[in-house]
Write a structure and sequence with these properties.
373 residues; Rossmann fold
């Protein structure tokens, strides 16, 4: 029996590597004869660098950048293909995990701009930006300001950082000279972890603002700011027209849109990109069972996130699947689905021991024919 273990990181609990190790131990409890292939995954959010490090020669570089509120933090860049390509995770700069308390109106993507500049200094010609896990909802304006863009109100004053002030945006001034050359020096691909558009009822603020600490009033203010940015881009940057309704434009609080508008980035589905880079389809074709999971599986998991895509492909390939999460709010009909409520003594944070127990239980049930796929 060949088992493919391919989870993503469990935010606040375990890295994708640690999850995969615990799942493998769970498999061994039930099927000690099983051959296990570990393939930690990411859809562009936290864990992207780990997933890519596991599949080939890479070099990690540390850089000091600004955190979501401007405080200095250390982030990593991953260099691939002999340094010709750099990969960054936006969450390492502006991730929600960087904050002791949520700051939905003030959190900024300025540190992502610092990461772009750090990637430029390595000499890389291509840059991959992983989106997801951000504390910010500023449409990438913080990133753009770090690269030389200016965002002014009607009196010509620079706006303060964060999405809370974007409703007052009256003018975008693009960089000039050397700063402009630095912006266009990299061929950028942005990996969206969701298909969310920039604004509106299903947009970045409405969908993910509450997870970042935004109340109803904050959500309305942030959504107005996102729409204002799109309006100003259309007016002030005629050579950078981006559809705010494009899938993934709302990723990372609109950073997906900002990467396309301010960096000229290609915005692609992170799940499909990572699965291609890691050789997932070949691994799936050789598997008799799939184990996957994330911290919380909910209605957004099927909107472009990696675990939803893994389960979809497993169904298409008729491979039984097991979904193990900290919390499952929207059970998947084609998988044996377990969360921490199924593990004896499991608390709010899923431990490696509880995860091992759940994985063993899931494999046992799947082996009994409980999997819908």
């Amino acid at each position: 029996m060949r088992v493919l273990v391919c989870p993503t990181a469990y935010k606040g609990s375990l890295t994708a590597d640690a999850v995969a190790e615990a799942m493998e131990r769970g498999v061994a409890r039930v099927r000690p004869d099983a051959e296990v292939e570990r393939l930690p995954l990411s859809d562009g959010g936290p864990g992207l660098l780990d997933a890519l490090s596991a599949i080939g020669r890479t070099r990690s570089v540390a850089a000091e950048v600004r955190g979501p509120l401007g405080e200095p933090v250390i982030a990593r860049l991953l260099l691939r293909y002999g340094g010709r390509e750099a990969v960054v995770e936006s969450a390492q700069a502006c991730g929600l995990h960087r904050l002791a308390e949520p700051a939905p109106l003030d959190a900024s993507t300025a540190g992502v701009g610092d990461l772009v500049l750090a990637a430029r200094r390595t000499g890389a010609g291509r840059l991959i930006i992983g989106l997801g896990g951000s504390a910010s909802t500023d449409a990438g304006t913080g990133m753009a300001e770090a690269l030389g863009y200016e965002f002014r109100d009607s009196d010509g004053r620079a706006l303060p950082p964060g999405g809370g002030a974007l409703h007052s945006l009256a003018e975008i001034r693009p960089p000039e000279g050397a700063a402009a050359a630095a912006v266009t020096a990299l061929a950028v691909t942005a990996l969206a972890d969701v298909t969310t558009p920039l604004s509106g009822q299903g947009g970045a603020a409405a969908t993910f603002g509450p997870q970042k600490g935004a109340d109803d009033r904050d959500v309305a203010l942030l959504d107005l700011g996102l729409r204002t940015v799109a309006d100003r881009v259309a007016e002030d940057l005629p050579d950078r027209q981006v559809d705010p309704g494009a899938p993934g434009a709302g990723a990372a609080g609109g950073l997906g849109y900002g990467c396309a508008a301010f960096l000229g980035a290609s915005l692609v589905a992170g799940s499909a990109w990572v699965l291609r880079e890691t050789g997932f389809d070949d691994a799936l074709a050789a598997a008799d069972m799939v184990l996957t999971g994330e911290g919380a599986f909910d209605r957004t998991s099927a909107a472009g996130k990696i675990v939803g895509e893994v389960l979809r492909r497993a169904v298409e390939a008729a491979v039984p699947s097991v979904l193990v999460c900290g919390l499952i709010e929207a059970p998947h009909a084609a998988a044996v689905a377990l969360d921490r409520r199924d593990a004896e003594g499991a608390g709010d944070v899923l431990s490696a021991g509880a995860l091992e127990e759940l994985a063993a239980l899931g494999v046992r049930r799947a082996g009994e024919g409980s999997a819908g796929s």
